Amino acid sequence: MFYDDDADLSLLDGKTVAIIGYGSQGHAHARNLKDSGVNVIVGLREGSKSVAQAESHGLEVVSPSEAASRGDIVMLLVPDERHKDIYEADVVDGLAEGNLLLFGHGFSVLYNEVQPPSFVDVGLAAPKGPGHLVRRQYEEGSGVPGLIAIHQDATGNAKALALAYAKGIGCTRGGVIETTIFRPPS
Q1: Is 105 a catalytic residue?
Q2: From the CA atom positions of the chain, what is the Rg in Å?
């Protein structure tokens, strides 16, 4: 179990976190990271109903492809069934060597819907509760417990960055467990 003292939020200093999507989890992650002092941008398609909401929360909104290009850490928080299409259309071409690609669910990687390039870190940072609870508990000074998992560690720093991200959204306040969700059952 990892808690606040086990995670170094300063690892996110000078980095841009791109949140792709602004639904249940996306809004909570983006707002909690912003309130934790992290530079956050939100990637939304043109015409999305969520643009005005994200902007009203003081967040910069850009296209998903621009967010992926600008993000040092790119978190895909759209419905699982859209991962492949959004990843292929908007995310993969923006990834650079040393980036961290995160998911809120690991199924699209586990089942090869998304096949990240070998030069990026790939992981999971997943609160174990709905976004409104993740946000509310963060604002109250506590946090929803969460999971992290590392699928690919190209930089040797993927786990530390995933823990820093988990701290930024408040999960290390409640406790974070490392899992192996990216490995098929034996």
Answers
A1: yes
A2: 15
